[in-house]
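Lab notebook, design round three. We kept the backbone fixed and only want residue identities now. Task for the bench partner: fill in a sequence for the structure below.
Input structure tokens:
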């Protein structure tokens, strides 16, 4: 029973960090997310190396399913931000190209 409690506590910490990651994604705090994800990755690796695994997986499956759901939301927010940044960069580069073309044309005509 103690081993089950350890596994659930461990998975609970992973879930808490996943919730924090989603909060940070909503705030577009990407750099902070990297730090939290590093910590979370170590916990996930440790959980799955725990001697009580994989037999204990049934005791933490509900928590890990929640982690997967949260990750899906965080990933979707990250992809949206990436697309927005890409659009902004395209507009910026397009503006630069227009300026360069105008400058070139003014010197050649």
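Proposed sequence:
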């Amino acid at each position: 029973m103690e081993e089950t409690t350890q596994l659930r506590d461990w998975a609970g910490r992973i879930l808490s960090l996943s919730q924090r990651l989603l909060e940070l994604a909503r705030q577009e705090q990407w750099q902070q997310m990297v730090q939290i994800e590093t910590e979370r990755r170590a916990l996930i690796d440790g959980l799955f190396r725990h001697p009580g695994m994989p037999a204990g997986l049934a005791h933490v499956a509900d928590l890990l399913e929640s982690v997967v759901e949260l990750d899906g939301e965080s990933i979707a927010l990250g992809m949206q931000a990436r697309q927005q940044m890409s659009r902004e960069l395209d507009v910026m580069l397009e503006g630069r190209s227009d300026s360069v073309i105008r400058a070139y044309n003014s010197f050649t005509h």
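Keep this in mind before ordering anything: The chain has three helices and no strands.
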